From TrEMBL:
<feature type="transmembrane region" description="Helical">
    <location>
        <begin position="29"/>
        <end position="47"/>
    </location>
</feature>
<dbReference type="InterPro" id="IPR005325">
    <property type="entry name" value="DUF308_memb"/>
</dbReference>
<keyword id="KW-0812">Transmembrane</keyword>
<feature type="transmembrane region" description="Helical">
    <location>
        <begin position="59"/>
        <end position="77"/>
    </location>
</feature>
<dbReference type="Pfam" id="PF03729">
    <property type="entry name" value="DUF308"/>
</dbReference>
<feature type="transmembrane region" description="Helical">
    <location>
        <begin position="113"/>
        <end position="134"/>
    </location>
</feature>
<keyword id="KW-1133">Transmembrane helix</keyword>
<feature type="transmembrane region" description="Helical">
    <location>
        <begin position="83"/>
        <end position="106"/>
    </location>
</feature>
<keyword id="KW-0472">Membrane</keyword>
<feature type="transmembrane region" description="Helical">
    <location>
        <begin position="140"/>
        <end position="158"/>
    </location>
</feature>
<protein>
    <submittedName>
        <fullName>Acid-resistance membrane protein</fullName>
    </submittedName>
</protein>
Length: 160
């Protein structure tokens, strides 16, 4: 039951991230900050829910989630921090996506689709960095995180 709730939460957060940039109301810093924030929240919730199954993976997910949460709040509410991090913000989000994929890859070996969740996270993180380097469109970049959350949620549901 707990996995189903986490899976549905991932799909909902993924849809929110994909839909949010379409609104086009907020700045690039808020879009990237919100994407990182939602990914951080998901990792913290997933880490807490996995504490019984894999303490190491759980601690890694919670730690990465807390770091992402703090960073995203700074990016959203402190424009000078965003200006300072503007050059590396795109890379940070891609790196966080790759790290989340790597943690999923390492920690979900016993799950049927865990390997693929990790591979997709790593691949989308690399794609995020490449697109961030050349395109710098927050609509596309925010959507990549949303796509990973949706895929991870669907694969978790299929793995039940």
């Amino acid at each position: 039951m707990k996995n189903a709730i986490i899976s549905i939460l991932a799909v909902i957060l993924g849809l929110l991230i994909i839909a949010f940039p379409v609104l086009g109301v907020v700045t690039a810093s808020a879009i990237i900050g919100l994407s990182i924030l939602l990914l951080g929240v998901y990792l913290m919730i997933a880490g807490i829910s996995e504490l019984d199954y894999s303490p190491t993976r759980s601690i890694l997910n919670i730690t990465i989630g807390v770091i992402m949460l703090i960073l995203s709040i700074g990016i959203i509410f402190n424009p000078s921090l965003f200006a300072f991090l503007a050059a590396i913000t795109l890379y940070l989000a891609g790196i966080f996506l790759m790290v989340a994929g790597l943690v999923t890859l390492i920690g979900n070996r016993e799950n049927k689709y865990g390997f693929w969740m990790g591979i997709v996270g790593i691949a989308l993180g690399i794609l995020y960095i490449i697109l961030g380097t050349y395109i710098r469109d927050p609509l596309i970049l925010g959507s990549l995180i949303g796509i990973w959350l949706m895929i991870a949620g669907v694969l978790r549901l299929a793995d039940r």
